[in-house]
Amino acid sequence: MNLALTDTQQALREEFRSFVQTELLPYANDYDKQGFIPMELIQKLGARGYLGATLPEAYGGRNMDQVSYGLLNEEIGSACSSTRSLITVHSSLTAETILRWGTREQKDKWLPLLATGASLAAFGLSEPDAGSDTAGIKTTYQVTADGYTLNGVKKWITFAQTAHLFVIVAQGEQGITAFLVERDTPGLTVKPLEGILGTRASMLGEIHLDDCHIPAENLFGRKGWGLQQIVNTALDNGRYSVACGSLGIARACLEDSIRYAKNRRSFGQLLKDHQLIKQKIANMVTEVKAASLLCRNAGYLRDKKDPDSIIQTSLAKYHASRMANNIAAEAVQLHGALGCHDSISIQRYFRDAKVMEIIEGSTEIQQILIADHSIAGLSTIL
């Protein structure tokens, strides 16, 4: 197995880095402080094709392979996890899932809009009393003569404040089912959520559904198959995006720490010459390299549509998110008081990294998945 980047993938990485350096990194701290991403940036993401990165060209997408898509998430994640969160929920959770399970009419209607960013999408799964316990959702649907009626509350929904289209997962007589719900649906309201620890510009919202009538053609997937079809596909896609984004956070912490160690003097010498600092940097480099290989391997298997890609994606998300937390903490420690101040990005990376362990399946959920899979057949993991 050759995990080296192709010439095309390397060229895309350089493209992504150039965009991040000029359009994102200089402003990311400001976005975090103001609590939103400006529409101007979202339009630039759409114009570059980054919001439809993996969608076929027939729908206006860039038809990127999964390894390239991972590089996009890594590079954007290295500058702004809130912006990477938009890529995750809009592209991985929603657009890719519509591509997989949507009807021809749903694809033709929504994918061209999502590919360009003309419409933004969000994924409504979590609720006030249901996060990792996806089977415990309380939002309900009832069958009507010409469609469905939805009632309930969705919480912690990334970019709910700006999304035009929501995937809403609800419980009914025929089991858990998913629906495509447009923002202007009567009875749908969004309440902004503030005070989040990290990814503060990801424009979280609480979605209230009060007797929302959904036309029959907006059923998403089969009735009763909301978890098996829609949620599992979306979360698998999202875990890959988050894994690569976590890698980006860790790499940024490492690079900032090395730059700081080369210039900061302490006890008569540069930090880089202190043995304990060398130890920290060596550990960071090792962990970043290991996470990079796990992410690259997951992308490689996803491109092959190998069934093993699902558990390998969980492994990548599990390791990369935990690793990002550890490295961000070490980076704060290395920077001292400066690392705790919002004049630099380290404190933001530290806060964002913790969120990565919670979203798209918590660390504990990944542990259960990996352990169960390993017990069932160790050879498929190794």
Listing every helix as H and every strand as E from the N terminus to the C terminus, the arrangement reads HHHHHHEEEEEEEEHEEHHHH
CATH topology of the largest domain: Butyryl-CoA Dehydrogenase, subunit A, domain 3
- Structural class of the helices, strands and pairings? alpha+beta
What is the annotated CATH architecture of the largest domain?
Answer: Up-down Bundle
- Biggest sheet strand order reads 1-4-5-8
Give the low-pLDDT segments: none
Superfamily at the CATH H level of the largest domain?
Butyryl-CoA Dehydrogenase, subunit A, domain 3
Largest sheet: 4 strands, mixed
Topology, please?
Layout: H1 7-24, H2 28-34, H3 39-47, H4 66-77, H5 81-101, H6 104-116, E1 121-124, E2 140-144, E3 147-157, E4 165-172, E5 175-182, E6 188-192, E7 205-215, E8 219-220, H7 226-263, E9 265-266, E10 269-270, H8 275-304, H9 309-335, H10 346-356, H11 363-376
Parallel strand pairs: 1-4
Antiparallel strand pairs: 2-3, 3-7, 4-5, 5-8, 6-7, 9-10
Helix pairs in contact: 1-4, 4-5, 4-7, 4-8, 5-6, 5-7, 7-8, 7-9, 7-10, 8-9, 9-10, 9-11
GO molecular function, one term: flavin adenine dinucleotide binding
Domain Acyl-CoA dehydrogenase/oxidase N-terminal: 6-117
Organism: Chitinophaga flava
